């Protein structure tokens, strides 16, 4: 069990390093590349990270044939086994020599479901964390209030 966890952690670190390296300059594979879903323009070579890719996020394309749909998601979604599986398949197909934007070969609907699941899990995690913080604050307030009334 420990070896499997170590192996998964090493893969995750390797993929994160690759993302950091390649996502600094998000580029398409060439002038006749993919169209963004919902965009009228072709993706041209970008000199900077697009404005919609905020800190702690990355862009990924779901590619089917010549069509590509672009998604922007939080780095935390890299913890999801389904997304990791897609990235592993992309690594097996392209290796780490691929230039430009990160692409996974799947239907856009499939990637959307994976990323939506990640987003919902993060919301649940945040809500649980906030609930725990609220409980701790309420206990502290009750403790302080009881000491105030006792003196």
- Judged by helices, strands and strand pairing, the structural class is alpha+beta
SS elements, strand count: 3
Largest sheet: 3 strands, mixed
Spell the H/E element sequence. Answer: HEEHEH
Q: State the end-to-end distance.
A: 54 Å
Tell me the fraction of residues in β-strands, as a range.
5-15%
- Which residue ranges are poorly predicted, with pLDDT under 50 across at least 5 consecutive positions? 25-47
Computed Rg: 21 Å
- Kindly state the percentage of residues in helix: 40-55%
Q: Rough shape?
A: elongated
Strand order of the largest sheet: 2-1-3
Query: What is the tally of helical segments?
Result: 3
Mean pLDDT: 74
How would you describe the overall organization of this protein?
This protein is an alpha+beta fold and 151 residues long. 52% of the residues lie in helices and 13% in strands. It has three helices and three strands. A three-stranded mixed beta sheet has the order 2-1-3. Strand 1 and strand 2 form a beta hairpin. The longest helix is centred in the last third of the chain and has 43 residues. The radius of gyration is 21 Å and the shape is elongated.
List keywords for this structure.
single chain, 151 residues, alpha+beta, 3 helices, 3 strands, 52% helix
SSE topology sketch:
Blueprint: H1 2-23, E1 57-64, E2 67-74, H2 81-94, E3 102-105, H3 108-150
Parallel strand pairs: 1-3
Antiparallel strand pairs: 1-2
């Amino acid at each position: 069990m420990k070896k499997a966890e170590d192996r998964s952690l090493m893969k995750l670190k390797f993929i994160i390093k690759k993302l950091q390296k390649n996502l600094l300059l998000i580029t398409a594979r060439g002038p006749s590349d993919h169209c963004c879903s919902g965009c009228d323009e072709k993706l041209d070579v970008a000199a900077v990270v697009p404005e919609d890719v905020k800190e702690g996020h990355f862009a990924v394309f779901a590619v089917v044939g010549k069509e590509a749909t672009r998604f922007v998601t939080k780095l935390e979604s890299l913890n999801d086994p389904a997304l990791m599986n897609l990235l592993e398949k992309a690594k097996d197909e392209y290796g780490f020599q691929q230039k430009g934007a990160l692409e996974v070969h799947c239907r856009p609907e499939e990637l959307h479901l994976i990323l939506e699941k990640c987003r919902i899990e993060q919301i649940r995690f945040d809500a649980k964390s906030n609930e725990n913080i609220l409980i701790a604050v309420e206990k502290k307030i009750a403790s302080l209030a009881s000491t105030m009334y006792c003196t």
